[in-house]
Design brief:
182 residues; alpha/beta; D-Maltodextrin-Binding Protein, domain 2; three-stranded parallel β-sheet; two-stranded parallel sheet; 42% helix
Length: 182
């Protein structure tokens, strides 16, 4: 089974939104001061590729220094709530945003992209999966999902497994990762 995950449309959406936010922020900061503007971005690790590309282009400009902290969105939200300094928070889900919003730690929010849950397997995976029942019948020993306490994609995966009433049969096989990249 091969699942294709085309990132181009998603990366383009992320890129446009991030560029607009960073441009607005940097424009206001650079105009207020002639010294180097420092921008601290807390970003879901699933956005790392596109954020790094944009960061590189901005850092080549005069008076801009961007530092990025990548991790699971929930983990980043807890760090911000504990006092970590972040100018921009790019979350992969709404729960971390809502958590910060309820704590009055957010000045404004915007939805800039959507995502979907996918099943990824190695190239030598020879099973043809067409529906959820096919997943239940797979002879697998382990399945990995992001930890629901650290990353929204883990919440989504757990919710899907519960919705199809297969969480109980799979939970002993699950290995929790810190985020989507682990």
């Amino acid at each position: 089974m091969k699942l294709l995950f085309t990132r181009n449309a998603l990366l383009l959406s992320f890129s446009i939104f991030i560029i607009l936010i960073i441009l607005f922020f940097l424009y206001s900061e650079v105009n207020r001061s002639s010294s180097v503007s420092k921008v601290v971005v807390f970003s879901a690790i699933s956005l790392q590729d596109v954020v790094e590309e944009i960061k590189s282009s901005f850092e080549s400009q005069k008076n801009v220094e961007i530092s990025v902290n990548y991790s699971g969105s929930q983990k980043l939200a807890r760090q911000i709530a504990a006092g970590a300094d972040a100018d921009i928070f790019l979350s992969a889900g709404i729960l971390p945003r809502d958590f910060l919003n309820e704590s009055n730690l957010v000045s404004s929010t915007s939805f800039f992209a959507s995502n979907r849950l996918v099943l990824v397997a190695s190239e030598d995976f020879s099973y043809d999966i067409k529906n959820v029942q096919d997943i239940i019948d797979l002879p697998v020993e382990r399945i990995s999902i992001a930890n629901p306490e650290l990353a929204p994609v883990g919440v989504y995966a757990k919710d899907v497994l519960k919705y199809y009433k297969i969480w109980e049969s799979f939970k002993e096989k699950i290995i929790f990762a810190n985020n989507t990249r682990d």
